[in-house]
UniProtKB/TrEMBL annotation:
The gene is pc2. Gene3D superfamilies: Galactose-binding domain-like, Peptidase S8/S53 domain. This is Neuroendocrine convertase 2. The lineage of its organism: Eukaryota, Metazoa, Spiralia, Lophotrochozoa, Platyhelminthes. The active site is at D50, H91, S268. InterPro entries: Galactose-bd-like_sf, Kexin/furin, P_dom, Peptidase_S8/S53_dom, Peptidase_S8/S53_dom_sf, Peptidase_S8_Asp-AS, Peptidase_S8_His-AS, Peptidase_S8_Ser-AS. It is an enzyme of class 3 (hydrolase). It holds the Pfam family P_proprotein.
Amino acid sequence: MKLPTDPLFSKEWYIRNTGQADGVKDLDLNVLSAWAQGITGKGVTTAIMDDGIDYLHPDLSKNYNAESSYDFSSNDPYPFPRYTDDWFNSHGTRCAGEISAERDNGICGVGVAYDSKIAGLRMLDQPYMTDLIEAAAMSYDRDNIDIYSASWGPTDDGRTVDGPRNETMRAIVEGVNKGRKGKGSIYVWASGDGGAADDCNCDGYAASMWTISINSATNDGETASYDESCSSTLASTFSNGKAWFSLDAGVGTVDLYGQCTLHHSGTSAAAPEAAGVFALALEANSNIGWRDMQHLTVLTSKRNHLHDRDRRHNWTINGAGLEFNHLFGYGVLDAGDMVRVSKKWVNVPERFHCIAGQINKRYRFNVTKALILEIDTDACKSDTGHRVNYLEHVQAFISVKASRRGDITMFLTSPMGTTSMILSHRPKDDDSTRGFTKWPFMTTHTWGENPRGKWRLTVMFDTKDPLSQGIFSEWVLVLHGTQNRPYDKLSSSLEKIIPKLGVVKRQHASERFSQ
């Protein structure tokens, strides 16, 4: 296949990693494999919910979808970024370029889905954000916008616990149920830039089961210094070159006023890359639903060379045979395999949810002894309208307070023995009054497992302060998944493309998954 001639293409290591900037050869999104199949994003529109798009940029103008764009800051259909001397409002433009920068036009680089369309939903650049503005952006033109890409969220200060308000939540839920004429809008979210001192399960946008939370890796497979981690992250893409470089090899893309840049970075850069890969999948199969995209992500993402430099989070195989990592989710997106599988994909069965059990009782715990609670559930087996046999998302709605909220850590262990860290130590969070109230901690690590049996919740302190104490008052366990085996109708030929599928099928056929 002929390579793009765009001047920055050789530096777009996230598309084609040849080892430039001391990266690991072939550690990339495998985009060239998708292009070689004739898939380039045609007919797909991604909306960038951000500070605007420089739609006059010569590398974006031909792929700009004006009909699906709007400026919620100025209430007009022209979401051009507000001018500042320091180019502060370049964020959305850079994200757009990663997805849809034109190919072979002699300008900047090339987008992951260079024949797809991008729309601008300008909503960030204003004195304050409202629930109604967020909701309006997330539901705008939802029959024509396929993917909504968001590289923002609550403040990444390691203290904040926040998420969507009522109208925004309603918009997202209606989007996955009604968007794309019933197939469901795809919401892609950056996991956050709070680093090891933060936890993206405290970000209600990234940790939502209706969004696809994307973390980032450097070009040598490590986590960047700013990456947050959490059990709700589904997969990873790329942000910077080697983390210890004094001058990181950033993400090459377009910039304001016809310019180019090699300095885009952060999980802000990772989410649009994922949106570009998903645009390729949607061209390959326009019938893919919002849940199908999550299943495709789980099955086709790769461990590749991703690793935890500090060796705190190892790769683990869950009870369904799927390999995951607390930092990287199910691995780095593989555009080539996602496209191959999408072409033969059969929509997954109907989704159900089950309130598996709850504990409403006050427990005191301290630094010397962990609190261990169990819920033994049949996963609503007797209720055909809510029974769950094969897991997708698991939520633990928890209410807990402590003398120092950030010192609490929590682990959820499934009946099949998979342990998810649903809350990590946040050393900057010194809250002592609000705590967590019915907060929906979520994990994707038990994907495909049988949920019946004992679930164990472990609540403990990660501190040496002998005076630390807390009060736990509620745990509601909610299971989401299918009653029927999700992959039975898929062609056996796909097992050559995704070995994970063969493992999951064999696990599902075992007695452990009996219905």
